[in-house]
């Protein structure tokens, strides 16, 4: 199974060119789509989820034309949108039962079995009769995954799923996604680099509507290996370093500003080599394109 996206473009009626010829091949497993806010991630996710039209380009899942056969796509799609509202007074059990019947599972016994298995998988069985309004952020997200899994989807899209989750909830959510990713295509859209490096075997970075890097996370990291240099500086020296060097990121550490610089050679003796990670790849790709507004 492979999702092939070719030259997908979208301009909104206000003139924003949100997708500029996106081309990606997405195999089975967890695929990370990384990009800053406004990169076009949600626009791409909504298009694949048949919720909005593209202007041009194609997207196919094996023989299925995602942009045309919308009804067929919805049968094999699980979607967890960025903004996920729940009916606060309904229990997760009743809500899942209701969605399952909307999705065409009319046999009561079959539905009961399915809902129980989803609640167990997402670790919500013990709280199945509590109303959704009382759930924590992590529980709501896990409920979101449970509803997205109804109908045994082949393509699962999760848009910015870990925003607002505490570390333990995030961890639990990641484990759940990994399990699901074994048999389906899961596209995880996020601006959190760590989510991708922990979870995804394939990824793409998008920025200003374009794919700026794609591949296996470790291989992308190899690409900047030996070219990342670090130094702790005073905050007011930053502007000076930015004029001479390609400063890709800044972090605060014990009151000092630590900069990462992308350079083929050591900028000067005061810099130290840094073992590059995916965050360096990400910042190296996006800062040059966004005029350093993010660092
Ligand atoms: P991301 O999910 O990466 O933050 P989006 O796809 O939401 O990016 O947004 C990409 C660009 O398209 C942004 O400039 C955003 O303001 C714009 N945009 C998104 N949705 C709409 C819309 N419905 N109408 C007009 N502009 C939009």
From TrEMBL:
GO molecular function annotations of the record: ATP binding; ATP hydrolysis activity
Source taxon at top rank: Bacteria
Has the keyword S-adenosyl-L-methionine been applied to this entry? no
Keywords, alphabetical: ATP-binding, Nucleotide-binding, Transport
Annotated ABC transporter domain ranges read: 3-233
**Into which family does the record put it?**
Belongs to the ABC transporter superfamily.
Query: What name appears for this protein in its UniProt entry?
Result: ABC transporter ATP-binding protein
Q: Which organism is it from?
A: Aequorivita antarctica
């Amino acid at each position: 199974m492979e999702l092939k996206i070719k030259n997908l473009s979208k301009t909104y009626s206000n003139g924003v060119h949100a997708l500029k010829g996106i081309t990606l091949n997405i195999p089975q497993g967890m695929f990370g789509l990384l990009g800053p806010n406004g990169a076009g991630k949600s626009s791409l996710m909504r298009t694949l989820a048949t919720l909005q039209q593209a202007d041009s380009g194609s997207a196919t899942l094996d023989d299925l034309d995602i942009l045309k056969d919308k009804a067929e796509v919805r049968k094999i799609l699980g979607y967890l949108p960025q903004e996920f509202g729940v009916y606060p007074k309904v229990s997760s059990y009743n809500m899942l039962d209701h969605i399952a019947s909307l999705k065409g599972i009319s046999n009561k016994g079959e539905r009961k079995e399915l809902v129980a298995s989803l609640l167990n998988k997402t670790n919500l069985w013990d709280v199945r009769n509590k109303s959704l309004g009382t759930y924590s952020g992590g529980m709501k997200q896990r409920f979101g995954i449970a509803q997205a899994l109804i109908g045994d989807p082949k393509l699962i899209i999760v848009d910015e799923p870990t925003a607002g989750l505490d570390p333990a909830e995030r961890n639990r959510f990641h484990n759940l996604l990994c399990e699901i990713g074994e048999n389906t295509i899961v596209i995880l859209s996020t601006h959190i680099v760590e989510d991708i490096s922990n979870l995804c075997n394939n990824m793409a970075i998008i920025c200003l509507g374009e794919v700026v890097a794609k591949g296996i996370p470790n291989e992308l990291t190899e690409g900047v290996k030996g070219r990342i240099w670090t130094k702790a500086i005073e905050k007011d020296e930053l502007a000076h370093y930015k004029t001479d060097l390609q400063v890709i990121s800044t972090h605060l550490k014990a009151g000092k500003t630590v900069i990462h610089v992308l350079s083929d050679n050591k900028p000067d003796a005061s810099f130290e080599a840094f073992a590059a990670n995916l965050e360096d790849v990400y910042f190296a790709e996006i800062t040059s394109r966004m005029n350093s507004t993010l660092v």
